[in-house]
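Internal ticket - ligand job 254, glutamine:
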Amino acid sequence: MAVGVLAFQGSFNEHIAALRRIGVKGVEIRKPEQLGDIAALIIPGGESTTMAKLAEYHNMFPALREFVKMGKPVWGTCAGLIFLANKVFGQKTDGQELVGGLDCTVHRNFFGSQIQSFEAEISVPHVADKEGGPPGFRGVFIRAPAILEVGSEVEILAEVPVPDKLKTSEVIKESQKVYPESLNKVIVAVKQGNLLGTAFHPELTADNRWHLYFIKMVNDQIEETETATSSGIIKAGDIYGLQDPKIELPIYLP
Ligand code: GLN
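stdout (structure tokens):
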């Protein structure tokens, strides 16, 4: 069993490399019928409007929505998180199609423009609980979205304080009119059943814990389905063995 990575645009290669580092096979997904062959899907970061246009052109949206409805695990990172959100704030005028399913409101460019991209140490107690390692994680935020509000079924996995210099920005003032809470801290990682969303880019770090966490979600889901056989379970290290995590293009080395 392999994990699919939506491969129209953005950091799909980096996710496939991160999966390879934990010994899991990742495959590039560009056609609706390919979704039938994978246990789970990652929607990478990139540029959500462009990615949505390409996905629409390739008629992916109905199949992606069906995949989510079937209860298959899907992880959206950054632009991928925008894809999964039920509501998006700060979209381009004519908006973009969404897959939806994740009961939250996301501000598409909450942290500002590309040049306001940043790295921050974030507290990830849930992930550290399951995967071990330090309680912190180096979050790489690239023109990142933020989650302003979540429904009751959504588990919050990480939050960050809003950087002081952004507090007077138009983006924040604008979202504050609707979500007054979003001035001091915002949510940057959530889980809701089979769906995982992160506003940052774990595939660009050498810390594999988010990928391992997602694979556990995948295995839990496989175990729950009636047709599951133990051979369907994906184990970290199954395909390529566990490799040195520092081998491929991490931009951050702990
Ligand atoms: N904010 C970006 C968008 O709208 C997403 C950025 C990212 O994926 N790194 O698409």
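Auto-summary: Residues 45-48, 78-79, 82, 108-109, 142-143, 145 surround glutamine (CB under 6 Å). The two ends are 31 Å apart (CA to CA).
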